């Protein structure tokens, strides 16, 4: 077997990833490749397991089965230092921002820099944090506020700044635009596109906001009943020919998708 | 009948799972306490939180305990004309028992609850997950500093509390019970043994560790929003208080056995 050129090697490779909570099958065999520099968006209904998928990749949840390969190395089952080393190359924007409310904004942004010893001292870390804040369009005065003094949109921006501060190779965005007004949502979308391009990073985002999905995605995947039922170029998502995808992207109440909160375990594979 | 058996089985399994989870948590926590890198800044902040800010509560508790001890023991010993023992009784009961136990219970209410609420909130708002994604071990960053601070600060608190308590006894003894100040102090130190104080401080260290451990454990495993955090807080205080009383007996027994 001849070794393939490095740029065709996926940055992130998932094979048959499964996760269940009790009797509820959430991920039922996920296969996914994300290429370097690509921006992939996973869409899917509320409770379809999108956040669980991200948490499995980040090692916050342990999949029951399957393999998750980042940069050619298996990461399922990694612990402690080894996991930290992998995570040092990842950035994550949480659904609820998850800012540390005991720390001022700039220390939130600089957290990864200080902990990961990316900078020599606190002054330098602060400088880098201020640059990141400017990048997401926040004024310098915000730096010394605590997260509870910010609006939801501002918290999302700080979360975004924190996710990109360490200049990660892969960034994950969990519903970056939910709960924001349409203009702010579009601003965040632009920021995501700009920052990932700027970093040259690979991006894996989650959303159920189609405007956001088509804006930030190179490719789109739809998660339904624990499986990726459709994966394709972002441009084709409106003419996928898949009834489930059609119903979802057009937001219609009638169609094959009946009740997302349906607790019947998705076709149990095992 | 089978349902009863199933119930017993389920309860037993839950018990085993909890014990397992707790042992794992404790093991991990201790291993991160003794392994570098540590976070001096966070340890100092916790020490101030536990040691300094608990001083008023512990001071008041031991002050009044010392005062009431003097009154009560005077009343009791007067019945067989042994009033002279008041000072000794006050200092021994405070250093061996009341100092550590009362301080422990007060700090459990104050600090155990605060730790569980803080860490629990961090859990349910995904801040603990965020720590991991920023390559920071939550045990090292959140749990270890609290355990170290609990372990070291409680003995100091108790030492100060003992002194304040003895002073309370002295106040009552000299103002209400008619002791000569010099005699009272002489009586206080005369029969006091080093082991009285040491056993009390050992207890205090154990209680401080247990308080922080319970606060962190229940906070770390809390789930389900505000209600879950509330439950974690209650559980942290209740379990820490019960463990303090049990440990108090166990440690006393150990010191007596020598
Ligand atoms: N820690 C957990 N324990 C038990 N069940 C869980 C846990 N985390 C998620 N679930 C379940 O997994 C399912 C998927 O949850 P997930 O958070 O991934 O949904 P989602 O696709 O991100 O939805 P949303 O778009 O609303 O954020 C839900 O039914 C949820 O109840
Ligand atoms: Mg989600």
TrEMBL record, chain A:
Record keywords, A-Z: ATP-binding, Nucleotide-binding, Transport
Pfam families: ABC_tran
UniProt protein name: Phospholipid/cholesterol/gamma-HCH transport system ATP-binding protein
SMART domains in the cross-refs: AAA
Top-level taxon: Bacteria
Residue ranges occupied by any ABC transporter domain in the UniProt entry: 12-250
Biased composition (Basic and acidic residues): 260-270
Nucleotide-binding as UniProt keyword: yes
PROSITE patterns (alphabetical): ABC_TRANSPORTER_1, ABC_TRANSPORTER_2
Positions of the UniProt region annotated as Disordered: 249-270
From TrEMBL, chain B:
Topology class, membrane: Multi-pass membrane protein
Major subcellular site: membrane
TM stretches of this protein: 50-71, 147-172, 192-217, 229-251
A Pfam short name: MlaE
A GO-annotated cellular component: ATP-binding cassette (ABC) transporter complex
Superkingdom field: Bacteria
Keywords of the record: Cell inner membrane, Cell membrane, Membrane, Transmembrane, Transmembrane helix, Transport
InterPro entries linked: ABC_MlaE_roteobac, Permease_MalE
Phosphoprotein is among the record's keywords: no
Keyword Nucleotidyltransferase appears in the UniProt entry: no
Family: Belongs to the MlaE permease family.
Function as written in the Swiss-Prot or TrEMBL entry: Could be part of an ABC transporter complex.
Name this protein carries in UniProt: Phospholipid/cholesterol/gamma-HCH transport system permease protein
Organism field: Roseospira visakhapatnamensis
